Amino acid sequence: MNLTKHWAAQLDDYAIDVGWSPGGELLAAASAAGTLRVYSASDGALRHELPGHAAGANCLAFAPTPPLLASGGQDGTVKLWDAGSGQHLKTSELGRGWVEHLAWRPAAENRPTPLLAAACGRRLTLLDLEGSVRHAFSEAAKTISALAWDPKGGAIAEAHFGGIRIWDADDFLLQKSLPYANGIHALAWSPDGRWLVSGNQDPSVHLWIPAEDIELHMSGYEGKVRHLSFDPTSRWLATSGGRDACVWDCAGAGPEGREPAMLPHDAPVCAVSFQGSHGLLATGSSDGTVMLWSPERAQPLRATVRMPSAAARLSWSPGDQFLAIGSEKGAVYVLKCEA
Amino acid sequence: MDPIPVTVLTGYLGAGKTTLLNRILTEQHGRKLAVIENEFGEVGVDNQLVVSGEEELFEMNNGCICCSVRGDLIRILGRLLKRKERLDGILIETTGLANPAPVAQTFFTDDEMRSAFRLDAIVTVVDARHVTRHLEAGDESVKQVAFADVILLNKTDLVEPAELDRLESRLRRINAVAKIHRTRACDLPLDRVVGLGGFNLGRAIDLDPDFMEPEYPFEWAGVYPLPAGDHELVIGDDDDPGHSHDHGECGHDHHHHDRGDPNELDVVVLPVASTEPDEIGRALKQAVGAFSDWEGRVSQSEPLRIGPALNRLVLKEGNGRFRLRPAAAGLHAVFEQRGEAPLHIYAGAELVKPAWQRDFHPAHEHDDKVTSVGIVQPGDLDGNRLNSWVSELLRTRGGDIYRMKGVLSVKGTDKRLVFQGVHMLFDAKFDRPWDGAERVNTLVFIGKNLDRTQLTDGFRTCLA
């Protein structure tokens, strides 16, 4: 395994989000202060610096139709940008809350028009490519704390303190309500659509098989679980929640009764991300260490790099060749990963 | 990295929170502060970070307030950590009706909150004109006082000094450990409000010494400037037309309770040189001694003995008239067994107003169910017994115990154990060594329906 620095750049503040364009040509990064930067993935050249959100940015997401880029901020807006030309296209005002979560509907052949799910405060809204509201769902009981699309794109799950609601993305009806009597920090849907998982404040992870009304509860964490990631086979679920990244085996009946693989760090784990089509897991801890793992191997650790500050975001490029790291001190690193 | 200090501002609507907040923000203090305000757009100061939020309760356990935290604060505080530059402090403004418990409990939520932030102080602004009404009106106002580390008794220019003394002693009864500052428009040095380490475990508890000696045998004392001569001391309802006056001016609350023989009242009268704290302290000690002395019965129209001697006044239907004959003009402290018995002194036809007065042992007064109980106990504690006592106490009484603070001496360690709690949540750490200082346990409970005897006895069982 060969992990090398490809390029690096510096933002004006904490790297609150990073994201690759669908073809992997561009990397966008949002700073907590609010500016967006678009880099050329091949050499790190700064292509555009966009004003973003004056009150602070929270998240960004490239649309499946390049080069459209969406961003969400503390000003309660979603902004759409042409990441190719650097043009601001549209501002959608969603309310007084923060727009903290954005997620594009997974592309599918029978659905040519992408939809953007945006959570602002307690309300989930679906926007179209022009930034117009397609549907605004009823408000959740508490502020929405995570979003996850069903991988086939038929439904979207929103989490808040107290539970999860799953909405049909075509007729906008409530498919299911999954109560959970605590705070939820993260949601993940397994790529095969079978498992819906929450990372919780209490601290635990809770797994549902919504289709079968089955739920499992895995506790024993040191701290709240804020990060979840499934591997592309849907078997391995990586979670934060302590000094070890914890990997559950979700094959068959699920992780209940199985010991998870514990992948050790020297400091609390603050980011976990599986590759999109291969089996490598990247984990970051608050001391600035980033490690790569093959969880199914007897000797799972594959590589270790140390950064000057902790990884706030880890994001694999489409095709899994590059790993983008956005740090707490605002540095963006792109590492090249060769087997 | 050191935790970021957080100051919580509470207070009834109109008490002056926003005034204080604006002062903190506009004053040149060179600190980078973030403000979390309760409503949108109330405060806006250039170059400061202002975040607006809407109160959102996370009820962790079936809606129990002891287990509720502020979800909006968790989210906003978490976001404030996501900055390249560090903040020097955070101010949280709460709504006028907010219960401070969920705010304080938010900082106990999890390890991240505990390590990233330090609740520096809960600062409560009270409106001197309206606080009495607010305290009667509802629990929130009482809780805001009970939870406070610092109380600003504000708008003092609108209230008479004697009334301020009464208000302060009432606030003190609810919360014996808060620092009380009298202000006009929240005008006080900011270092009294921010950067205190008020909630900090490392700080020794500064207890009101009066509060720590709750066993006074008298309930009220007043110091009267008396000329030499033959004066009248009147107990009870003053229905002599020659002595008509407005009771509101006499500066002595009249309460009615049925305790003891209503036709006996113990009184001690001592000459004092001044109303300075040292002199009052000396007189208090002398009076405590006198109250344990043999009583001398004093019948109607007889003179009281002046000096360290106990006068047992014989009343008729709760009333009585006696003589008071100071040998020389000067200040005289009168200590009264039952504070609720009206006591007036007349020099000739003139009502003499006390130059100083104080209530003692007042837990029963005003029917404030929220009080403070302090325990000072020398000696070492058994760690295990302490642990099980505190656990059991919080399990059974955590809903009524709003706050708890202490510095404890645990057997087998040379460091002070400092701890604090909010309802059922508490935090304890060993801090600096005793370093030759006397190993004394000091702890304070602030809460509703506290039983002093039970708490004190329970605590003593933890002694090693």
Which short descriptors sum up this protein?
heterodimer; A: 339 residues; four-stranded antiparallel beta sheet; 54% strand; B: alpha/beta; seven-stranded parallel beta sheet; six-stranded mixed beta sheet; 10 helices; 24 strands; 32% strand
Task: Give the structural class of chain B.
Answer: alpha/beta
Radius of gyration of chain A: 19 Å
Low-confidence stretches of chain A: none
Distance between the termini of chain A: 5 Å
Largest β sheet strand count, sense and barrel closure of chain B: 7 strands, parallel
Which regions of chain B have little confidence, pLDDT < 50, spanning 5+ residues?
Answer: 198-204, 241-258
Q: Biggest interface in this structure?
A: A-B, 25 and 19 residues
Q: How much helix, percentage-wise, in residues of chain B?
A: 10-25%
- Mean of the pLDDT scores of chain B? 83
Characterise this structure.
The complex is a heterodimer of chains A (339) and B (464). Chain A is an all-beta fold and 339 residues long. In chain A, 0% of the residues lie in helices and 54% in strands. Chain A is built from no helices and 32 strands. In chain A, a hairpin with a 7-residue loop joins strand 28 (289-293) and strand 29 (301-306). Helices cover 22% and strands 32% of the residues of chain B. Chain B contains ten helices and 24 strands. The longest helix of chain B is centred in the middle third of the chain and has 15 residues, at 277-291. Residues 198-204 and 241-258 of chain B have low confidence and may be disordered. Chain A binds chain B through residues 12-14, 16, 32, 56, 58, 74, 96, 98, 142-143, 145, 161, 182-183, 201, 203, 222-224, 312, 328-330, and chain B through 40, 51-52, 56, 58, 60, 71-72, 74-75, 79, 82-85, 109-112.
